[in-house]
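The step that takes the researchers longest sounds almost clerical: writing a folded protein down as plain text. Below is the pair of lines this work produces for a single protein:

——
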Amino acid sequence: MTSVTSTARFAVDELLGGPRVSDATPRSALDWVDLIRRGIPSPAVDALTRLTHLTQTELAAAVGIPVRTLARRKREGRLTSGESSRLMRLPRVIARGEEVFEDLDAVLDWLKLERPGRPNPPGLDRDAR
């Protein structure tokens, strides 16, 4: 497995590409709400996949957005507010997991573990690779 991080910790905005991707850097919960309502810029999807080494299919499954819809939103430039809200959950879980595991690779491995009562972990489908 290729190492994703060393000891660096990622914040949610960094996982989504930071100021290079977003119109503004959210500084409060209300800023995040505003960004989600306007729709997260589609380059944030690329930033998240690049930093986590998830495939587009794994990411789409994890956030509950069909792959074709995600591809269309990338062409359009923005996710809808509902899609943005779902997308936000993944970097929040990853950032929190990184606080616990202190290693992004360990977090991603944990996310991909099968658990009883759930066919696949938070949407990360092993067959999607």
